[in-house]
Prior knowledge:
Layout: H1 26-37, E1 40-41, H2 53-64, H3 78-92, E2 102-105, H4 107-119, E3 125-130, H5 134-142, E4 146-151, E5 153-155, E6 158-160, H6 163-169, E7 174-180, H7 192-204, E8 208-212, E9 237-242, H8 244-247, E10 255-258, H9 261-271, H10 280-289, H11 294-317, E11 321-323, E12 330-334, H12 343-354, E13 356-357, E14 359-360, E15 374-378, H13 383-393
Parallel strand pairs: 1-13, 3-4, 3-7, 7-8, 8-9
Antiparallel strand pairs: 2-10, 5-6, 9-10, 11-12, 12-15, 14-15
Amino acid sequence: MAPMSAPVGGTRPLLNRRLASFGTTIFAEMSALAARTGSINLGQGFPDTDGPAEIAEAASRAVLTGLGNQYPPGPGIPELRTAVAEHQQRFYGLSYDPDTEVLVTAGATEAIAASLLALLEPGDEVIALEPYYDSYAACIAMAGATRVPVTLRPHAGAFTLDLDELRAAVTPRTRLLLLNTPHNPTGTVLTPAELAAVAELAVDRDLLVVTDEVYEHLVFEGAHLPLASLPGMRERTVTISSSGKTFSFTGWKVGWVTAPPELVSAVRSAKQFLTYVSSGPFQYAIAEALRLPDDYYEGFRADLAAKRDILADGLAAAGFEVFRPRGTYFITTDITPLGEKDGLAFCRALPERCGVVAIPNQVFYDDRAAGATQVRWAFCKRTVVLEEAVERLGRLTH
Length: 398
C-alpha cells in the first residue's frame, strides 16, 4: 500500500479547536506516574477503600434481581429521585418535586457538562472561581462560551473570595455564575456572608447559577449552606451533587441535579444526548445510601477530619506552608518554603525524590503564575497509607 501523501482529514487539526488547549488531564498523567514508580498516589481524589458494605450489597442485590440492568428511565429511577428530594429536605429544609425538579446524571461531571451545554450559547460569559476543577473550563469551551475567572487568593491560612472582584467581573454578557463550595482544590468553604453576597449579585443582575456541592457532607467546621436556600436563589440555581464523594463509590458515577422544572427540563434536554442513562443498578443502591442514619454522615466526616489532620501536620513538619481545608478531602500547600518555585516540576520530580504523587494546582488556573507554587494532596486514603506518605515526605528536609 502506498503511503498517504497527506494526513487523514487534510491539514486541519483533528481535535476540535475548543478542546485543543486541554490535552490529557493532569490526573491521568500523575496517576500513571504513581503506577510507574510505585509511589503513594495522593494526587487523584478517590478513596482506597469502598463505602458501606450494606450499600455494596444493595447494588449486588439490584443486579441479581434484575433492577436496573436494562435502561432506567431518562430522568433517573423514581426511587432515587425521591431519595434525593428527601435528602434535600432532611438536611437543608429545601423542598423539591422528585418528578419535575430532580434529574439523575452520570456523576456530577455529566451534570456540569449538561448544565453548561444547555444553558450557554456562544458569546455568553461564565464567571468561575479559580483554581477550578478542570472539567469546568472544558465544558464552558465546548459550549462556546467564555470563561471569566475570579481568583481565590491565599490569606491568613486560607483562600478567600474578593467580593469586589466578583462584582467587577460581571458584564452585560455574563449569563451564569459557576460556583463550587466546598471548593476543590483549595478546601475553602464560602461563608454565609459570602454566599449572601453572591446571591444578592445573582438576583440583582438576573444571573443563572450552577453550583457544584459534591463535598456537601465534608464540611469540617460549621455546616454546609446550599446557595439555593438563600432568598431569590431557588428559582435561578442548578444545584449539583453526587454519591461518589459521600459514599466512597466513585466508580458508580451516580450524580444528580436539583432545580426548578424549567431548569431541569433544559439540563435534561442536553443530558439525554450525552449518556442518555447510566448506572441502573447503582441508582437503586444510592437511593438506600441517601437514607442512611445521621451517624453514618457524622462518622464519615469525623474520619476524614482525622485524616486531614494527619496529612496536614505531616506536610507542615516536612516544611510546606499548609492551608488547612475547612472542607473537601484535599489539602493545598505552598512549596516556596522548600526553596521551590514550580509546582509542576516539583510534582513530576516528587516520586523519584520520596515516592509520593501530588497534583500541581497551576493547571487549575487561567493565571498560571497565581498557582505556580501550590500543590494539592488528597487525604481520602487509609490512615496507614497517609502515615507512610508523611514518613516519606519527611525525606524532603533531610
